[in-house]
Design a protein that fits this description.
CATH class of the largest domain: Alpha Beta
Number of helices: 10
Structural class: alpha/beta
CATH topology of the largest domain: Rossmann fold
Strand order of the largest sheet: 2-1-3-4-5
Strand content: 5-15%
Number of domains: 2
Oligomer: single chain
Distance between the termini: 37 Å
Helix content: 40-55%
């Protein structure tokens, strides 16, 4: 199967270079480049222009990466957004995750890691390198008012689901292990998002680590 990718970046030469690299990866093809979120949204008016993955720059005119990622999360939640930016500060990383990004890479990433990231994004639903995971964990740890397991009631099934969150299993595979449907697992996930005040699987995983859930 070939997965379709769109590169959103306001620097044409960079966008073309990234596209050229991705075209060399087995199983991926680049549909087109877009210079900002507004152009991407306009492209989406034609169904064949809707990709599986969007590689998203952050700093862009008219409609930046944060706004565009949030729009995609609201309107096309199945599209996997991976930030590809020169910005690697805590604020940008956390803001992109809160907007719905499932991955984050720095633009100086080696092509080999980019290929691994894309394949992992498809297989596992997210990809964050070690430096990004560390920043996410530190951000969560700094929040003194973050809820703990002592302050909120979690069901046995929700706790069981949380134990699988830190593995590399997909949600479908977790459903198989828990002997329930993928829709039921999605229900556990959404309920925990609400209870724990997080928005992504990474947030759930960091919550598990912080609170020593086992």
């Amino acid at each position: 199967m070939t997965y379709k990718v769109v590169v959103v970046d306001d620097h044409l030469l960079i966008a073309k270079a990234i596209s050229s690299i991705i075209e060399g990866f087995s199983g991926f093809e680049v549909l087109y480049e877009a210079e900002n979120g507004k152009v991407l949204i306009d492209k989406f008016k034609v169904r064949v222009n809707i990709p599986d993955i969007v590689l998203m720059d952050i700093s862009m005119p008219i409609m930046n990466g944060f706004e565009t990622t949030q729009w995609l999360t609201d309107n096309y939640p199945d599209i996997l957004v991976m930030a590809l930016s020169v910005q690697d500060d805590d604020e940008s990383l956390i803001k992109m995750i809160k907007s719905g990004a499932k991955g984050y890479l720095h633009k100086n990433v080696h092509p080999a890691e980019l290929e691994i990231a894309l394949k992992t994004l498809i297989d596992k639903g997210m990809y964050f390198p070690a430096w990004a995971t560390s920043k996410i964990f530190m951000s969560i740890s700094k929040k003194d008012d973050k809820k703990t397991t002592n302050e909120i009631k979690l069901s046995d099934r929700e706790l069981a689901f949380l134990n699988f969150v830190c593995t590399e299993l997909t949600y479908k595979e977790i459903a198989d292990r828990m002997c329930c449907s993928p829709r039921t697992v999605e229900g556990y996930r959404d309920a925990l998002f609400e209870k724990l005040g997080v928005k992504t699987r990474v947030g759930l995983a960091m919550y598990v680590v912080k609170n020593n859930i086992s």
